[in-house]
Amino acid sequence: MQCSASIPHMPALHPGQRKRGLTLIELLLFVVVVGIALSAMLRVFTTATQASADPVIRRQELAIAESMLHEVQLMPMTWCDPTDANVEIATSASGCASLAESLGPEPGESRYGPTYFNNVNDYAGFSMSGIRDIGNAAVAGLTGYAVSVAVAPTALDTLTAGGEALKITITVTGPDASTLVLQGWRTRYAPQSPY
After folding, report:
1. Is residue 46 part of a domain?
2. Is the pLDDT reported for residue 20 higher than 80?
3. How many domains does the chain have?
4. What is the pLDDT of residue 62?
5. What are the tens digits of pLDDT across the range 52-61?
6. Which structural domain, as residue segments, surrounds residue 95?
7. Does residue 41 lie within any of the structural domains?
8. What is the pLDDT of residues 136-160, one digit of tens each?
9. What is the pTM of this model?
10. 183 phi, psi to nearest 5 deg
11. Mind giving me the DSSP string for the chain?
12. Residue 84 domain flag
């Protein structure tokens, strides 16, 4: 009886045959490259997340500015104060019975009443800290914003800066101290209409 143990045969590598699998160095190199790529992506996502509130603030500033500009532009632009007896017949400031319009509100006028702003010019120099509606109620969530209004005569195409056109500049400051400036123009297209 013969006892022979067989030894598993390892095939010899032929010159055209390649090894399969990864070496330790290749594996470590892969881990390092993937780690660097993941940390770079994480840094980008972190930066984007930190700045994600900025567009919200900017859009809110724009909404506030557009709303205020719309409010100012809807006011009449007459030669006389709308309460003047000659407001509908005056063809210049000299035709007013008592009160020709000028920049800034007339004594006692306010955006919040009891005597309300009644002309575009009345908004010159107006400002508020913490946004309020026309009834003077604070608007929830907008206490960190401020708005100011500047109204100035301007030349516009063929109109000179003699009061026929006004440039309205609305400046809104957000809770992060960023500012947004929005400008609009108002012309005296119906100078005798107080509405």
Report:
1. no
2. no
3. 1
4. 96
5. 667 889 999 9
6. 55-187
7. no
8. 999 999 999 999 999 999 888 776 6
9. 0.70
10. -120, 150
11. ----PPPPPPPPPPTT----S--HHHHHHHHHHHHHHHHHHHHHHHHHHHTTHHHHHHHHHHHHHHHHHHHHHTS---SB-TTSTTTTT-SSGGG-SS-B--SSPPTTEETTSSEE--SGGGGTT-EEES-B-TTSPBPTT-TT-EEEEEEEE--BTTB-TTTSEEEEEEEEE-TTS-EEEEEEEEE-SSTT---
12. yes
What DSSP line would sit under 73-127, residue for residue? HTS---SB-TTSTTTTT-SSGGG-SS-B--SSPPTTEETTSSEE--SGGGGTT-E
Distances (CA, A) of 53 to 44, 127, 131, 140, 144: 16, 25, 19, 18, 14
Token pair 């500047």: residue: 150
Assess if residue 158 is contained within a domain: yes
Residue pLDDT, tens place only, 73-115: 999 888 888 888 888 888 888 889 988 888 888 888 999 888 8
For tokens 């997340």, the residue is 49
